[in-house]
Amino acid sequence: MIWYLLYFFRGTTEPPVLDESNWLRRAFARYGRYAASHVITTLLVSVAVAAVLIYPFPFLYTTDFTNGASILPEYAWTDTLPLDDKNRVEPDVIMRSIWVHGSYFQALNKTVLLSALELQDELLGPTVNFNPRRRTTDGVDKPNGTITDLTPDQRDAYHVITGLTNETWFFQSPLQYWSCSSKSIELDDDIITTANKRKTQPTSVNVTLRHSTVFSGKRFQDRRLVAADALVITLIHHRDSPVGRLWQERTEALKSRMTDNWDIFEYAPNGNTSELYEFQFRPLSSQDVLLLGLAYTLVIIYFWLCLSKLRAVKSRVGLMVTVIAQIFLAIFSSFTLCAILKIDLSRIPRLGYPVVIFCMSLENIFRLINAVILTPSEDNTSKRISQALGETGYIALFSVTQNLVILYVLSKLVSPGVAAFCNFAAIALIFDFFYLLTFFLSVLSVDVRRTELSDALAKASIRSHRSPSEAQPHQTWIDAMLQGRIAMSTRIAGTIVMVGFVLIAQWHFFENETVLKTLGRISSKHKDLSLSSPLTEVHQGRSPASWLGLQDHETARELIHIIKPDAHSYIARVFHPTIFVLKGSDRNLTANEPWFPPAVYDFWRHQSVPFMVTVLVVGAAVRLLMNYLLWDELADSGRVGDQDGDSLLSVKTLSSGHALDVALLSACSDGHLVSVGLDRVVRVWDIKAGGNSYILGEHEDSSIIPFPILAMCIDEESHWLALLTADKVLLWNLVDFRWGPVIRVEPDRHKPEAFFFVPDDSVIIPSLLLIRRDSVITELRTDHAGSNSFALTRESIIVSVGCLTEKGFPAQVIASTREGQVRIATQEGIGWSSEVMNIGNLKPRELVSVQALPDLGFFLVIRSETVDLVDSQTLRTIYTFRVDPVQPKSMKCFHSRPRRMRCGSVALWTFTLAYLQAYTRDLIIQTYSPQHEGESLCFCDPASPTRKTCCPWQRARESKRTIKNPGLWDALPSGIMVGVRRKTSDKPQADTHQDQPPPQSNSLRRRHQATQPVNGHVPQDNWEIWMFSHFGTKETWETLPLCPKIEDDGHLFVTNLGPMVRIGRASVAVGLSNVIKVIMVGNERFETGDDSQPGDGMPALGSRRRKGPSALRGKSAAHCPHC
Q: What is the pTM assigned to this prediction?
């Protein structure tokens, strides 16, 4: 809210963005990095604090008003409100009382009780075995005129039990525990036990003689009364009651007659003899229930809608439980602390506490979640949490501070009951902020570690990249909100709900007044109900004003039922009590007022050992549970623990696997990497297990794997590895470590152009497709160990091929020939059918290639300066992209996760083409995104009408990036570009971008020897890794030496890089002579079935594995400033 108030000075309602060097932002970022790196420690701290504060809760609160514990809120508005005499309010009843003291906190002494009984009888007449029900008004003449005395029968005739009139009366006294009998008091050997046993004893009018109403200055131990400082005898009467007049007259007479036995004091602060008080017990009305139910419903709906739009969480239900748990931890912790601090929370209905805290908490929670979503996915978890908390932590701190100030101001203006709620809300806000930075942050860190947030990143990136100058069609706020184009921000809603609830609560206690009068009450100062008494010579344990404020609400409800049966409150003129102190009493302080409520000391005496044991057990259980649930995350953290927390790139070297160069690589999403070397070794690596490896056929006949191996691939479930040799296909089970059946193939054929598994759940081993350059498609199956061949074209050579395969659908092969034809072959049972696509006229000697888009069911036809987007079913061109001259077969395409529109077509957030420029060999990255927020790139027919949420390709926004000297590169599923290139020399050299081999001897052994600098640098150390992403407004460029420790790599002399293959979501492997470099961007989990395209040991082919969304965005026609 503070940012809205400062709008006229700042010109914006958005929170300020602190510079990254600001000390406050750096402090939150540093803490976020630590919390994300030490998730279990952070979680244990929050759980330990929660256990410490929540365990005492049932021992500190009770619904019993007589045992010294704090009172739980009920389903009613209850309060004792001092009123201003200027309002000239006519009281419903008058309350007069005397307080009888003995020695300090010795009021339950027999001598004091007998002396108090004597005073009571002097004021009311004989009260032994008082029971006006036995009396009858028949034959009793009520006196007329001035009354000087009343007989017991006449007195009882005015009792309220005979009927409610302006003359009725009744009284409450602790002596009624003993039936106001001196004999019973004398015969009682245990006064305190009797007082505790009879604490629920009713009077003749069914008003319970609770300790809070008949004693003042109580001491409790083990939920029992052990001492009291004063006996309180109270007369309650109506305005014209003769008993009330006699009480007043006899009290004045006692002041002169009883001076020998009593020290008598008049309690009259500020010179007033009486004050007006309103006692309320107002149950929740149907209107209150409706409003609270509506508030809870709206909060739950809003909460669920916000969660449903978060595509960046591993489990929405888990996140919902975490948010609710955090809020309830804050609420219960606040209740416990309020009990310790003696803050009475029983005046506000219990249903009002959660909804207010819920609204205020959601503001900071969703701000943090959205900030994490907006961080680049290539960053590791610690850096993402650090960046998000650095951006939002200080805003949350300002928000909490602002609300604390507002609550402090309101607490000074509203009634005491509402002020107690303000104190609770302030404490709850502090605890909520603490649990946000510990409990919620640790759980969110785990969730970020378990998912890449790819979908939400792409969506958020599109939204964050909109230019304010772009023209958008007119749309109402309601439509935009319902379509999700704008957020229903809680940035000010929490504060509004908080202030609104405080004002509504204040109005509830004065609902019969006008709004102006209630506001006037807020601006006025309320009377002090402090503990201290102005009678310093008496040293009262509690002042009369404070005693009135502590009256329990059940007593108020019972008195309302007697005085105004159909009302929820009554107004009483309370006369200040006359204080009687027994002569010879020691009123010196023998003990100070305890700091905490009695229940706290009882808890520590009886529950301290179970409490500490429970906290330790809960901490240990949480630690074991987290170790079990996060064992893989902890293992991953251990593997990357030595890396620089600020670096996204990391390199792992797989050495000692081959004696000669790596010639072929293939990988799958679960971290298996297969390498084939010129040393005739086929090695299987387990990257997830730290780089463990084994050699295929190591302990068998070496002839089982005939070389050369022409191609290899791994199936989509990461179960089978297929090795293609000259005359057969060998199958190896990666799970059971055994050989599968051998499939014979026709020998001495053309070089394979593609080799891959076809997904099929109906068989144990999926079939394989082998496509050779002579355009022959061969289906290899293990069920009959045979092959099925089909000639795509006659007397023509294939130059590129793509494949669309999906479970339950026939496979499609798209191929381009040397003559520029594009042919599509579709599997039909055991055979194939083919057709030729018309692509128009070609330029002389123009090469045509194809690129399959398996997730979309489309493919690209790539020519020298155009790229056609073609529907694989209808073979219609949806759109033609204009590109720079393309280096043949260098085009790669990646896109965000597709979704289905209502019109039935596929839609994307982003679509990116990456290729090498034919003349400069620079890497060009062209990204297409919708023009307007909320739209999607739609693959519908250009001639058909589009929905308003569809953005046709003609209106798509294009941005372009250029990276010079890219070297060998690939695009990760998230759209991050990763490459390895030769470092450029500081001094201009001719042809420095070319990988020219230095002069070498024919001896291979000399490849291990150190070489002299060539062109000013050492060749072995002239390779670097680069990573580039453009996400929203943030651009990330990072480089890292490929060989930071040359002497430890053990690689041979290298002039050219070997094959590169993608592993999992965020890793690539590249051959560097006889070693393999595994390059990781951020965190990599290597999960089976993860969103990645497995390497197939052949030129890139389409796969039905879904790819993650692109995180590349850019300004139009801009070059990367780092390249």
A: 0.63
